[in-house]
Task: structure prediction
Amino acid sequence: MSDFYALVPAAGSGSRMGNDLPKQYLPLAGRPLIFHALNTLCACPDIATVFVVLAPGDTLFHSYDWSRFGDKLQPLYCGGATRAESVTNGLLASELEPDDWVLVHDAARPCLTQAHLAKLILELRDDAVGGILAVPVADTLKRADDQQRIACTEEREGLWQAQTPQMFRAGLLAQALGNAKKFTDEAAAVEALGLKPKLVLSESGNFKVTYPQDLLLAELLLQQGKEI
Result:
């Protein structure tokens, strides 16, 4: 029987936040940003181990107290220059079996809930490919020209906004990442193999903190719905 594992790439700097401190360590509700995602993943009874992939020179992670998670949280100091490299290196270092499920989650999605995880695992545990949490695009989409003027309005029907976790078998994901020259998420690498990952309906609250103003919204959501 295959097991479930989580992998959180956290070797980046988050330059769009405009802060010298790497984004994953910015304060959010009295904790570093990354704490909230790790807290949810470690509390999931289906997940055996949560691997967090850090930059080799990371000196900040162990300045925080992670003792509440015990051995379930395993830091791996093998992060790369890109997300693809970090996930690939993390898969190698974790030494998982090819049939084990891996849930790759963004360190900067702090509002992930147990309900999100339960739904994802329930819908995908017997799936032949795997899939991702996502939400249908609700806003009208405009394509810009090089003058920042509207070139056209894009048809939004059938479009979904990808979230994380993205859940695939370790062997399949490693193969996909090894073949993909460039990708924006794990699902895109799997798609490049000719496969079709499943879309699992999520909620807009599982958003990625990208800009400074996002921290305020994330804190409000955490205070309303999560134990910190």
